[in-house]
Amino acid sequence: MEWVNWSGSQRCTPARFVTPRTREELAQAIVEGPAPVRVAGAGHSFSGGVATEGTLISLDLLARVLDADAASGLVRVEAGIRLHQLSQELHARGLAMPNLGDIDAQSLAGALSTGTHGTGTQFPNLAAQVESVELILADGSERIVRERDLLRAARVSLGALGVIAAVTIRCVPAFKLRIVDRPEPLDAVLGSLQERADAHDHFEFWAFPHADAALVRTLDETDAKVARPSRAGAYTSDVLMDNHAFRAVSEVAKRFPSQIPRLNRFMSSVASQRERVDWSYRVFASQRLVRFEEMEYALPRERAVEAVLAAKVALERHPVSFPIELRFSAADDALLSPAHERESTFVAVHVFRSMAYEAAFRDVEAALGELGGRPHWGKRSFLGAAELAPRYPRWDAFQAFRHELDPEGRFANAWVRNVLG
Ligand SMILES: Cc1cc2nc3c(=O)[nH]c(=O)nc-3n(C[C@H](O)[C@H](O)[C@H](O)COP(=O)(O)OP(=O)(O)OC[C@H]3O[C@@H](n4cnc5c(N)ncnc54)[C@H](O)[C@@H]3O)c2cc1C
């Protein structure tokens, strides 16, 4: 059976594909299956974390909420649950994830393992919510990780320590958000970027190469009543404008790359102001129907403006019709978190699925590397362990845990060997 990721750029044919129904079956698959042993979450990574010629495990049947305490916000949940299902289960209990990325299709463990984040200067990545991790190790034994140092390794672990069977996460009371989208001149946004980021719970923007407008999105907690556009209105704005119209323009860009500057200016100019109020999980995530390839870098927060401009200059040397996305994140203490112990800004670049991306991404990677960037583990990067190690002050501590928990490298596929050594 062939496995393919969301963007279509990663694929593999594992010797064994297992969908365990119990922890015992999971442990058996890990011990008995041919190495490397990897887990496929929702396949939404652009990097090679899932691919194996050995054993591929799906946790789709280990996806239940096991326990939820509304008073403390602690929720114990199996690792295969998708974020959209988790959000609905939490909402039914009066709880919510404090922050989410811009989609909720990922599995919980998949999102945690690569350091998936949303935006907001006061909000660290999703893995920072994790209070304990239930790991199944290479010998099939179970280890419940609560002690601080190992937990810092297990929160963002690239699937290199073992298979996460369940986690306990700290959630917050359900809350509503007001979302406002509006176009603004890019110069004005960059001129007061840090203040704007601090002025909102969640702040981000998109800026097209060759255009001078930014599409700014802010989200703020509110007690206001839910105010959604009509179903038809929502379909028109979210699906047709954000996806189908965008796909049509992207197809034109692919056929006529010389027209990309003009098309990008057109896309920036048609954006209009939109606003709605809804429960948080219905606001954070959007549908992404247009497929693309992505690279994303975490940089020190204070380098945000330089980073956007450097990425824009690099992209404008290539036929790229997709916008740059800029977000913020609080620091966290996971050993391999791209926001490890530094407040961060995240700069993401995208290329339409069937267009060449490597040359553009290499240029962006070189520019953002010079500014102290660390690549997102779930997205494209061309770096290996030798370049990555100096960017992580606690790299050796992670490697020591890896050596202790997976001494024979059963979980090390080609990508893990490349990025971790
Ligand atoms: C359209 C789109 C939008 C995105 N938006 C964002 C965003 O807003 N913010 C952001 O930070 N990222 C974003 N991403 C990236 C995405 O969140 C990450 O790549 C995430 O890891 C994908 O989760 P998944 O369940 O698909 O995991 P997969 O891609 O299937 O797996 C990711 C890694 O986790 C490992 N893994 C999965 N489950 C387990 C387990 N149980 N135990 C051990 N290892 C495991 C896999 O082996 C692999 O190495 C986006 C991706 C796409 C395609």
Structure description:
- The protein is of the alpha+beta class and 421 residues long.
- The chain is built from 14 helices and 20 strands.
- Helix 10 packs antiparallel against helix 11 (358-370).
- Flavin-adenine dinucleotide (FAD) binds next to strand 4, helix 3 and strand 11.
What would the keywords be for this entry?
5-stranded antiparallel sheet, 8-stranded antiparallel sheet, Vanillyl-alcohol Oxidase, Chain A, domain 3, alpha+beta, 421 residues, Uridine Diphospho-n-acetylenolpyruvylglucosamine Reductase, domain 3, binds flavin-adenine dinucleotide
Annotation field: number of helices: 14
Distance between the termini: 28 Å
Counted beta strands? 20
- Which word captures the global form? globular
Q: Can you say what the CATH homologous superfamily of the largest domain is? A: FAD-linked oxidases, C-terminal domain
Bound molecules: flavin-adenine dinucleotide
CATH topology category name of the largest domain: Vanillyl-alcohol Oxidase, Chain A, domain 3
User: How large, in whole angstroms, is the Cα Rg?
Assistant: 21 Å
Q: Mind telling me the CATH class of the largest domain? A: Alpha Beta
Q: What is the helix fraction of residues, given as a range?
A: 25-40%
Q: Can you summarize the main beta sheet?
A: 8 strands, antiparallel
CATH architecture of the largest domain: 3-Layer(aba) Sandwich
